[in-house]
Amino acid sequence: MSDLPIAAVVRIAKTNGAERVGSDAAAVLVEKAEDYIGNLAREAFKLAQHAGRKTIKEEDVEMAAKSVG
Fold it and tell me: N or C: which end of the chain has fewer CB within 10 A?
């Protein structure tokens, strides 16, 4: 089971040009989005720890996004 709602991911795909999204494609989009967010959060947390914080801040996420891609 995923943490992201499939409907939200489908809505994002449609907002970005997709006319229709198959259920199998929606499931893969959710999986890939969760993988990306997980990697981003891990990198942001490393940056927060390096700065001596337990809390991830916007700047950590922005910097992590540059390395995660």
Answer: N
Contact present, 45 and 56 (Cβ < 8 Å) = yes
CATH of 6-68, one of 1.10.20.10, 2.40.30.90, 1.10.3210.10, 3.40.1650.10: 1.10.20.10
Q: What is the pLDDT of residues 50-61, one digit of tens each?
A: 999 999 999 999
How many whole angstroms separate alpha carbon 2 and alpha carbon 28? 11
* Alpha carbons 18 and 64: distance in angstroms, whole number: 28
Instruction: Let me know: does 56 contact 48? Beta carbons within 8 Å.
Output: yes
Average pLDDT, the chain: 97
